């Protein structure tokens, strides 16, 4: 670590670290600390009438400290919440040596340090249930200061609220913003409830490959990587569908997978290129059964998370109570645009798009045009859960044709709060029809559609062995959690969302400085005072540089020794750069 990159507070903490070791205190002990109580439990289980006080062993992060002479109050943050600790000098230092209180506790501990406390539970004169400390142990020294979030009369000041910082440093976000941790606890409830519903229905959770030879199961642009051992390009999966269907061919009644998919597309408040999806396939079912199963499952999840079948997002109350509205996609488009697309050719639909002033191009086939129409005029209008059904065959290359409506398929998408939450089919199990659909997709790829599906010959081979009538569904877990927790941004429900690289000021490497005679060990000091590029030295008064280095030497004298150059040497550097 370049010490010149440290703030004054960070330098102070490193000094404290040194002093702790000199006192014989290990700042990072290895031994188990036998925690037997947590903040919320201590409060909920407090017995005012107990004959003897409850003895506890707690641990957590030091979040505040009020020193009042020989007695102090501190606040610890553990995994469940905060608890007050009362410390007196004579209790934790019963002998003559008072350094543990006077030096260790008052001067060398910093906010953010992890400490363990042994003591007993009591209620203070102000009525707060607290732990009276009899022993304090340092468990881990924090070398970076936490943001200090202040609250007064319900108002928060100096909050750690910048999204860029929060998403990059989620670990800090979780410490200082308790609502964030609550969101991820709720995410865990969503997943646990989802698994319980599927397991109780008798379906088997499985795992399928993340690296695939062919990016199949959806229309999306894949991430490409290279497998060195086989010397071939591989794809991060865009869906789990085709492998799960292989398992239905193999004889499983129902299979599901909850896992990561990867789509090499844009990022916005509703999309992350790496996202979590649940896909379920059940034999002898159709899309009508799947609609009924899905609405009951989502109602169960909503109740588990929120205690009722409603949630609030973007100021809107959304009810997940079954049943949901069911609306064919062509009727939806007719309802919103006035145009009836039933029986229309690709050219006729293209003409309608032009009349509606839509941005389209020649690579778009009939299915893509219909998809664009729905996305432009319909999708964002469905706030309450709505099943959009019966998609044209051109939009659904893996879906069984509709049993009574020629040209359509038995497919639905579930729209909630103006966005797709789930996509489901009566699965196509005719291998000949499937091969023709794949070839139609390849013709779209030839026209320039880089999201068109690729022919998966092994999947076709599996279908030729026979797949029973099957219904399948995919549900976006991140979007589901957004709805259940009332978060309008997908980044709020993913611990570590993808982000652009951190912006950093450009810096020359050490070789650029040594070329004009500057010693390499002096480069960090020069960059600390602002000369990140050799060209920054141009036309600077050498006396100013010498003064800046002198001030830096004074500030860091206890940390590192700076070999200060002479004024003559600095003058040569500046002249060389000119």
Automatic annotation (TrEMBL):
**Where does this polypeptide localize?**
Cytoplasm
| Keyword Nuclease included in the entry's annotation | no
Q: How is the cofactor bound?
A: Binds 3 Mg(2+) ions per subunit.
Binding, Mg(2+) 1: 413, 420
Q: Which Gene Ontology terms cover its molecular function?
A: ATP binding; lysine-tRNA ligase activity; magnesium ion binding; tRNA binding
Ranges for domain Aminoacyl-transfer RNA synthetases class-II family profile: 187-501
Kindly list the cofactors needed.
Answer: Mg(2+)
What's an example Gene Ontology biological process for this entry? lysyl-tRNA aminoacylation
Q: What is catalysed by this protein?
A: tRNA(Lys) + L-lysine + ATP = L-lysyl-tRNA(Lys) + AMP + diphosphate
What SUPFAM superfamilies is this protein classified in?
Class II aaRS and biotin synthetases (SSF55681), Nucleic acid-binding proteins (SSF50249)
Q: Where does Mg(2+) 2 bind?
A: 420
Q: Which InterPro entries match?
A: Aa-tRNA-synt_II, aa-tRNA-synth_II, aa-tRNA-synth_II/BPL/LPL, Lys-tRNA-ligase_II, Lys-tRNA-ligase_II_N, Lys-tRNA-synth_II_C, NA-bd_OB-fold, NA-bd_OB_tRNA
Q: Name one GO cellular component term.
A: cytosol
The protein's UniProt keywords, in alphabetical order, are: Aminoacyl-tRNA synthetase, ATP-binding, Cytoplasm, Ligase, Magnesium, Metal-binding, Nucleotide-binding, Protein biosynthesis
Query: Which Enzyme Commission number(s) are listed?
Result: 6.1.1.6
How does the record describe its quaternary structure? Homodimer.
Q: State the family named in the UniProt similarity comment for this chain.
A: Belongs to the class-II aminoacyl-tRNA synthetase family.
Quote the protein name from its UniProt record: Lysine--tRNA ligase
Q: What is the lineage of its organism?
A: Bacteria, Pseudomonadati, Bacteroidota, Bacteroidia, Bacteroidales
């Amino acid at each position: 670590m370049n010490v010149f990159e440290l703030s004054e507070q960070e330098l102070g903490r490193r000094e404290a670290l040194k002093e702790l070791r000199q006192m014989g205190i290990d700042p990072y002990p290895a031994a188990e600390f036998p925690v037997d109580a947590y903040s919320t439990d201590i409060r909920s289980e407090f017995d005012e009438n107990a004959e003897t006080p409850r003895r506890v062993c707690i641990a957590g992060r030091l979040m505040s400290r009020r020193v009042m002479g020989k007695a102090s109050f501190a606040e610890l943050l553990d995994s469940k919440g905060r608890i007050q600790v009362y410390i007196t000098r004579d209790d934790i230092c019963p002998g003559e040596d008072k350094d543990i209180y006077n030096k260790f506790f008052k001067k060398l501990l910093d906010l953010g340090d992890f400490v363990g406390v042994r003591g007993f539970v009591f209620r203070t004169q102000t009525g707060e249930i607290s732990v009276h400390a009899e022993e304090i142990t340092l468990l881990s020294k924090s070398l970076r200061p936490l943001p200090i979030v202040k609250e007064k009369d319900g108002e928060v000041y100096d909050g750690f609220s910048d999204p860029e910082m929060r998403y990059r440093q989620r670990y800090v976000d979780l410490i200082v913003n308790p609502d964030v941790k609550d969101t991820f606890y709720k995410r865990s409830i969503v997943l646990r409830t989802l698994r319980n519903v599927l397991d109780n229905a008798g379906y088997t959770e499985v795992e399928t490959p993340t690296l695939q030879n062919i990016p199949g199961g959806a229309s999306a642009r894949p991430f490409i990587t290279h497998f060195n051992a086989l010397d071939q390009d591989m794809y991060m999966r865009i869906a789990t569908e085709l492998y799960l269907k292989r398992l239905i061919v193999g004889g499983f009644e129902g299979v599901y997978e909850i896992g990561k998919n990867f789509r090499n597309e844009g990022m916005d408040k509703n999309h992350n290129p790496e996202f979590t999806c649940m896909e379920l396939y059940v034999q002898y079912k159709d899309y009508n059964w799947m609609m009924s199963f899905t609405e009951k499952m989502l109602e169960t999840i909503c109740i588990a998370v929120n205690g009722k079948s409603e949630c609030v997002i973007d100021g809107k109350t959304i009810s997940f109570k079954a049943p949901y509205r069911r609306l064919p996609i062509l009727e939806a488009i007719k309802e919103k645009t006035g145009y009836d697309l039933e029986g229309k050719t690709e050219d006729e639909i293209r003409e309608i798009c032009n009349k509606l002033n839509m941005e389209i191009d020649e690579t778009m086939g009939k299915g893509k045009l219909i998809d664009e129409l729905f996305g432009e005029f319909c999708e964002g209008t469905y706030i309450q859960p709505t099943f959009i059904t019966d998609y044209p065959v051109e939009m659904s290359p893996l879906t069984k044709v509709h049993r009574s409506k020629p040209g359509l398929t038995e497919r639905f998408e579930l729209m909630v709060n103006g966005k797709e939450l789930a996509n489901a089919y009566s699965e196509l199990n005719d291998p000949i029809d499937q091969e023709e659909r794949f070839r139609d997709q390849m013709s779209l790829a030839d026209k320039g559609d880089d999201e068109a599906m690729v022919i998966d010959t092994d999947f076709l081979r599996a279908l030729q062995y026979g797949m029973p009538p099957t219904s399948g569904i995919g549900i976006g877990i991140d979007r589901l959690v957004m709805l259940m927790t009332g978060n309008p941004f997908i980044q709020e429900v993913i611990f570590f969302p993808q982000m652009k690289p951190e912006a950093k000021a450009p810096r020359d490497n050490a070789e650029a400085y040594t070329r004009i005679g500057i010693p390499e060990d002096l480069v960090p000091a020069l960059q600390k005072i602002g000369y990140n590029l050799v060209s920054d030295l141009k036309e600077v008064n050498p006396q100013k540089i010498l003064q800046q280095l002198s001030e830096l030497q004074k500030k860091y004298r206890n940390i590192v020794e700076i070999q200060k150059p002479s004024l003559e040497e600095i003058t040569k550097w500046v002249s060389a750069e000119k």
